[in-house]
Specification:
This protein has 445 residues and is an alpha/beta fold. The protein is built from 14 helices and 15 strands. The protein has two domains: 1-20 and 123-352, TIM Barrel, CATH 3.20.20; 21-118, no CATH class. The structure holds pyridoxal-5'-phosphate.
Length: 445
């Protein structure tokens, strides 16, 4: 389909960047990464152990342009992409290290890895059982529908990323375990579902990272949604980390211009394109090509919003958040969410007490102008919904957390405030108890 509304020609600014070949390393090629060979044998072995359990994949752009190898191991982008020993709990680490040292045969080794993964809460917040809809009585595997207005779609060919984040809550999707995989067979099922659900206004393409897909594949999913029968779909959201891990996707890749034309066509058809950019650190925005990618996407009329979790070892201080939000706003990106690290995978390594998360959020907010204060949070994407920590208060002599639902599994919960007993150590909703002597939170009734 062609839309002949006035699609603006993109500037050729992209041409100042030489085309780059996408070179990627996976767990098997750890030993081939030149910078790693300078680290100790012990560190390299530890990476081999951890990457046997948690997914590992990193590209040359991240290695060469984003990581400061003189600052390793503290460098935030190194922590974001390279496995660290403490990401596995000691009993798991020891078991895998032992199996590697004793050169277990493959089937026994694989069984051990599978068992450990299964114990690491691979699908938190009821993702696998609770949010998967049915079409004509059949479960549709590539769709999640939890909050009334927004459907998540996982296109099959978008279920990897340009690099993997060490903290990823979708880590279980990348370890090649089909039982655990959530993927779509085809876009037909998505259309069928949306045809029957007129209450849905937003479709979020997610993964993995849908931006690993070739434009022509993405087109096959998106173009059918531009017809009249899907006029209830007002916003196409694209959840992606490509602006950080492979900005070339929007600048020098062979089909970069075609991708941006696709965004323009969607906008010309009357829909909003919301690019939900995952950012964890201002360093991801420092390269010229990262800034150029942001500029080119914005030229299409697409609005870029930013979101990402607060993580120990990567961004657990207010100054980094304030600096990141300021740089984003300067580039025209709208800060959208600050998340709490979810209760899965290497969570124990990255988690921050809720009270500290709130202090960091507040202190970062205090450093920026109102234009940069659009990020909601810190927010927990938990089973009942997205729960925001609004602050700490003292009510009738009792110290409490003030919380609210940003999103609720039950639509009636949206924006409802509620209170929990103050805790110094809680890192997730299930560690909290109702305040004021109540037995249960209202949403547990
Ligand atoms: C966050 C989230 C959404 C989108 O929520 P918004 O507040 O509209 O951005 C949709 N579905 C799920 C499962 C989510 O976690």
């Amino acid at each position: 389909m062609t839309i002949d509304a006035n699609i603006i020609a993109l500037t050729d600014a992209g041409q100042q960047f030489p085309p780059q070949r996408f070179k990627v390393y996976t767990a098997r090629q750890l030993g081939k990464i030149p910078q790693l060979q300078k680290l100790s044998e012990q560190t390299q072995f530890e990476m081999k152990v951890v990457s046997s359990v948690l997914p590992f994949r990193v590209n040359e752009y991240v290695i060469d342009e984003l990581i400061d190898w003189d600052a390793v191991p503290d460098d935030p982008i190194y922590q974001l992409t390279f496995p660290q020993r403490e990401m596995l709990e000691p009993r798991y680490y020891d078991a895998v290290a032992n199996a590697l040292n004793e050169e277990w045969e493959k089937s026994a080794f694989d069984a051990l890895i599978k068992e450990i993964r299964g114990e690491m809460n691979p699908h938190p917040a009821g993702q696998l059982e609770k949010n998967i809809p049915t079409v004509n009585g059949e479960r549709v595997n590539g769709i999640q529908h939890k909050y009334r207005e927004t459907v998540l779609f996982f296109p099959t060919s978008g279920q990897i990323c340009h690099s993997y984040c060490t903290f990823c809550f979708r880590w279980a999707q990348f370890v090649g375990d089909n039982e655990l995989k959530i993927a779509a067979k085809e876009s037909g099922q998505l259309q069928e579902y949306l045809r029957e659900h007129k209450e849905v206004t937003d479709v979020l393409f997610t993964g993995g990272d849908p931006m690993v897909m070739k434009t022509k594949n993405l087109r096959a999913y998106l173009e059918p949604l531009l017809t009249e029968e899907f006029s209830h779909i007002k916003t196409i959201r694209i959840g992606s980390k490509a602006l950080s891990f492979w900005p070339q996707r929007f600048v020098t890749d062979g089909d970069a211009d075609d991708l941006l034309s696709l965004f323009q066509e969607i906008i010309a058809s009357g829909k909003h394109v919301a690019f939900m950019a995952h950012y964890n650190h201002w360093r991801e925005l420092e390269t010229d090509i990262a800034k150029e990618a942001v500029k080119r996407i914005r030229q299409t009329g697409t609005v870029i919003r930013s979101q990402g979790p607060l993580l120990k070892h990567i961004n657990d201080n207010a100054d980094d958040w304030a600096k990141m939000w300021k740089i984003q706003v300067g580039l025209g990106i709208i800060p959208y969410y600050m998340f709490i690290e979810r209760d899965t995978g290497a969570r124990h390594y990255f988690e921050v007490p809720l009270v500290k998360a709130w202090e960091i959020y507040r202190e970062a907010m205090r450093q920026v102008s109102g234009i940069s204060r659009t990020a909601r949070g810190p927010s927990m994407s938990s089973d009942p919904g997205k729960v925001e920590i609004q602050g700490i208060a003292e009510i009738n002599g009792e110290k409490v957390f003030a919380l609210r639902f940003i999103q609720g599994r039950d639509h009636d919960w949206v924006q409802r405030p509620f209170f929990a007993k103050y805790s110094e150590t809680a890192t997730w909703l299930n560690h909290l108890e109702p305040a004021f002597g109540e037995e249960k939170f209202f949403f547990e009734e």
